[in-house]
Amino acid sequence: MATGQLFSRTTQALFYNYKQLPIQRMLDFDFLCGRETPSVAGIINPGAEGFQKLFFGQEEIAIPVHSTIEAACAAHPTADVFINFASFRSAAASSISALKQPTIRVVAIIAEGVPESDTKQLIAYARANNKVVIGPATVGGIQAGAFKIGDTAGTIDNIIQCKLYRPGSVGFVSKSGGMSNELYNTIARVTDGIYEGIAIGGDVFPGSTLSDHVLRFNNIPQVKMIVVLGELGGRDEYSLVEALKQGKVTKPVVAWVSGTCARLFKSEVQFGHAGAKSGGELESAQAKNQALRDAGAVVPTSYEAFEIVIKETFEKLVEEGKITPVKEVTPPQIPEDLNTAIKSGKVRAPTHIISTISDDRGEEPCYAGVPMSSIVEQGYGVGDVISLLWFKRSLPRYCTQFIEICIMLCADHGPCVSGAHNTIVTARAGKDLVSSLVSGLLTIGPRFGGAIDDAARYFKDAYDRGLTPYEFVESMKKKGIRVPGIGHRIKRGDNRDKRVELLQEFARTHFPSVRYMEYAVQVETYTLSKANNLVLNVDGAIGSLFLDLLAGSGLFTKQEIDEIVEIGYLNGLFVLARSIGLIGHTFDQKRLKQPLYRHPWEDVLYTK
Amino acid sequence: MARKKIREYDSKRLLKEHFKRISGYELPIKSAQVTESTDFNELAEKEPWLSSSKLVVKPDMLFGKRGKSGLVALNLDFAQVAIFVKERLGKEVEMSGCKGPITTFIVEPFIPHNEEFYLNIVSDRLGCSISFSECGGIEIEENWDKVKTIFVPTGVPFTSEVCAPLVATLPLEIKAEIDGFIKVVFTLFQDLDFTFLEMNPFTLVNGKPYPLDMRGELDDTAAFKNFKKWGNIEFPLPFGRVMNTTESFIHGLDEKTSASLKFTVLNPKGRIWTMVAGGGASVIYADTVGDLGFANELGNYAEYSGAPNEEEVLQYARVVIDCATADPDGRKRALVVGGGIANFTDVAATFNGIIRALKEKESKLKAARMHIYVRRGGPNYQRGLAKMRTLGEEIGIPIEVYGPEATMTGICKEAIQCITAAA
């Protein structure tokens, strides 16, 4: 273990497992201290390479990202601190490989829950190779005005409040990371501030111990007094007692061991930190406080009095002339992040996107305000989901059932229609699912699949204007437009389309009104008088019945209905439905391992 | 979290299973577990040796000194074991100051024996210490000078040479056997992430080691590596730790989330209740109430940390408030909503859950004459504190609110003043 300073104003670290916030906090601290180089030299993100953009003051900088520890160490030979944000599962393995790099001197492990046996391997290796491990289960540590590990000391406001941007005279070490921040504040209030603070972590066997750091602080000339916050459980504080008794620590030590409340518990108790467990009498807070007091440390009677004895000890040093007054500096202002500023209500920024149908910000995604779990629990179907996401409201069961029937009817129409054909050709060209699907979808338009929308538009227009079927059909003829939704390649007046009959029967049974459909039937009666194949086809049936659904449900205003028809919702229904078939054709071709399609010469008329 | 005691039954199960995997030799250990839900006929069918051999029965409750306390019965048949268990199951006993019911027994074949050996392995910071004695058993403490201990530093292979000081004085005919046994047990100790293992005693049956009594502790943070090896392991609560319904509710909540939620009732009639953020700070708040001389008024220990979400904090705070406001007696009470200066937890966000719970429980809080003391710092603390102040005005409950400018435990003193002030 190193015997003096671990960090300086030029210390650089490698950061394992990219986390934007802690790195940004380190860089903000650097800027606050007036460091010229950022304290993070490189990032290691297993399996990724490139750069990460972060702020250094007002400027953005690009920090290199490496995929392996070895590569990062080779690229940044002067970076000697390794900050490990890996999970408890992988923290030990990455830490041992970092310790094995000749350029790495200090490894800080943030994860809580690293197995004891793994940490012991790290301790053994670090001892044998004169390296330092801080943690696991820690927030890290800080050398004021020089270098900060990850999230240590919290927000910029707090760092300024605690004057951590410039060195003071107090060396501080604790087990708890949360409490270290509290003590930076306390110490700044009653002394000239922190020189260095380390949280060793709450595990049973931390990588470095309270006494390791106290002894190190004793060797740092700028540190004039040492503050220690221990905890019940374990025997680490006794190494400090020994060091004090042997006169190895020459600077004043103010110490408190928390956990006096353990005796209030009737049985053995495990507090929040793994190491904080009531054991034998020796491991109790009371015994440790007494032993430290007997060995010459300043120990208060309760935590509440800790601040007072820190103050008294510091003032005594001042009186003895042992403290050189700190030169106060004003740290530069750190530009606030937009997000923080917005959160605190200081600035506002326009949004660039507006969305009204779904929200994924809460506990679970919502469709038009209905949480996903209710959709599943209440047995909603695809039709209900479509009503929520397309129409932003729950429609009655008969409506959603009708939507589902439409989707089923339109899902596929064989391999020969242009959409399916395109999909098949694309799939056979070896393209992926999405390419095959969209090549089919791209054929949908005025000639293929567009009839439902048009049928609805024209039927609605004619009916709403009160045109008789005769006037309607003849006016279309005059304009040279075929009536959409009328006419079939095979079906005849005496051989109706079964699908149309089913739809009509469903609507007659369930819809409150079918006036648009009745109108379409009247139109059909007229067209049939002109030619036997001019039957109402499935597009016309869906188009007219959808108008009845919208108008008859009473859930849509006239304006909304106009808009729905205008935007082309019904085309959406066809696109959605036919995607099912097109995906099926793609899978079918892939399963059949069909080779590249080539159209035969014989089937092409080559001509001038 | 961390070192957890396991039952003797599980210690022996792991020993038997993995001794065989590591050494190829199967220890002839037989043991059966008996709890409230055990059907004795079914058990006898599954473990036929129970009906054919003389048996030993004892509580398997993580406490020692069972022999000395008269809780071990020897040389019984299975029917007698059933009677022994029936008479004691669910009965409360007191062991070294902890009271609790006996819920689990272990039943094993009765092994008449002469030799009693002692073996103990403890994981330590720089390695493991292994202790051994040929004078083990109930009198081990009286014979402590005969216990030999070696320390095996981390990473050093455990050879016969290293083991030699432990077995040096053993008679030649058993030395090799015990040397081999200790080596396998040590390998198993490391392989299964034991942190503590003790056999007191183990004996020799037909010249082969046989543990009669065994204790074990596993490092539960290593569970992710040992899922298969440990099998269906149980980590019982420490003996005497009986959870009431509110405590088990929070315990259940704690097990479901990645955050940490702890709640222990210390004195249901206490008048100072705490709800503190942070593993380190929560202990210090409880300490301070005690160190200032009011341990007897401290209602509970409570900790939340690791960024629980609003819903979790809400459920947690409800339970704390329900306990704190139970059975109003006309005298003032204090609720300490404390915490240090957070490094990265969003204070306003966690306070939302507490505020919602306080609002819900307005009438209960008033009935209990509750005074609330808040202290917290960290990201977004100004907003969190402002919301708390507004809440006080809104529901008309006295709330004192402090930020990082105040000392952390100053509100403990205020809480004490509140409950001790006249009327």
TrEMBL record, chain A:
Keyword Transferase: yes
SUPFAM superfamilies assigned to the protein according to its UniProt record, in alphabetical order: Citrate synthase, NAD(P)-binding Rossmann-fold domains
This protein's record includes keyword Transmembrane helix: no
GO annotation terms (biological process): acetyl-CoA biosynthetic process; fatty acid biosynthetic process
Gene3D superfamilies: Citrate Synthase, domain 1, Cytochrome P450-Terp, domain 2, NAD(P)-binding Rossmann-like Domain, Succinyl-CoA synthetase domains
Cell compartment(s), UniProt: Cytoplasm, Cytosol
E.C. number(s) listed in UniProt: 2.3.3.8
One Gene Ontology cellular component annotation held by this UniProt entry: cytosol
InterPro entries (UniProt xref): Cit_synth/succinyl-CoA_lig_AS (IPR017440), Citrate_synth-like_lrg_a-sub (IPR016142), Citrate_synth-like_sm_a-sub (IPR016143), Citrate_synthase (IPR002020), Citrate_synthase_sf (IPR036969), Citrt_syn/SCS-alpha_CS (IPR033847), NAD(P)-bd_dom_sf (IPR036291), Succ-CoA_synthase_bsu_CS (IPR017866)
Keywords: Acyltransferase, ATP-binding, Cytoplasm, Lipid biosynthesis, Lipid metabolism, Magnesium, Metal-binding, Nucleotide-binding, Transferase
Reactions catalysed, as given in the entry: oxaloacetate + acetyl-CoA + ADP + phosphate = citrate + ATP + CoA
Enzyme class of the recorded protein, top EC level: transferase
Subunit structure: Heterooctamer of 4 alpha and 4 beta chains.
Similarity annotation: Belongs to the succinate/malate CoA ligase alpha subunit family.
Name this protein carries in UniProt: ATP citrate synthase
Automatic annotation (TrEMBL), chain B:
Molecular-function GO term, any one: ATP citrate synthase activity
Keyword Lipoprotein set for record: no
PANTHER family in UniProt: SUCCINATE--COA LIGASE [GDP-FORMING] SUBUNIT BETA, MITOCHONDRIAL (PTHR11815:SF10), SUCCINYL-COA SYNTHETASE BETA CHAIN (PTHR11815)
Domain ATP-citrate synthase citrate-binding intervals: 241-417
Name of the featured protein: ATP citrate synthase
Biological process terms in GO annotation: acetyl-CoA biosynthetic process; lipid metabolic process; succinyl-CoA metabolic process; tricarboxylic acid cycle
Gene3D superfamilies: 3.30.470.110, Succinyl-CoA synthetase domains
SUPFAM superfamilies, per the entry: Glutathione synthetase ATP-binding domain-like, Succinyl-CoA synthetase domains
Family, per entry: Belongs to the succinate/malate CoA ligase beta subunit family.
Primary location recorded for the protein, binned into one broad class: cytoplasm
Catalytic activity from the UniProt record: oxaloacetate + acetyl-CoA + ADP + phosphate = citrate + ATP + CoA
Cellular-component GO terms for this entry: cytosol; succinate-CoA ligase complex
EC numbers on record: 2.3.3.8
Keywords, in A-Z order: Acyltransferase, ATP-binding, Cytoplasm, Lipid biosynthesis, Lipid metabolism, Nucleotide-binding, Transferase
UniProt KW Acyltransferase keyword: yes
InterPro entries linked: Citrate-bd, Citrate_synth_N, Succinyl-CoA_synth-like
Ranges where the ATP-citrate synthase ATP-grasp domain occurs: 2-230
UniProt subunit comment: Heterooctamer of 4 alpha and 4 beta chains.
Pfam families found in the cross-reference section: Citrate_bind (PF16114), Citrate_synth_N (PF24948)
Class of enzymatic activity (EC top level): transferase
Top-rank taxon, per record: Eukaryota
Subcellular localization(s) per the UniProt record: Cytoplasm, Cytosol
Described purpose of this protein according to its UniProt entry: ATP citrate-lyase is the primary enzyme responsible for the synthesis of cytosolic acetyl-CoA, used for the elongation of fatty acids and biosynthesis of isoprenoids, flavonoids and malonated derivatives. May supply substrate to the cytosolic acetyl-CoA carboxylase, which generates the malonyl-CoA used for the synthesis of a multitude of compounds, including very long chain fatty acids and flavonoids. Required for normal growth and development and elongation of C18 fatty acids to C20 to C24 fatty acids in seeds.
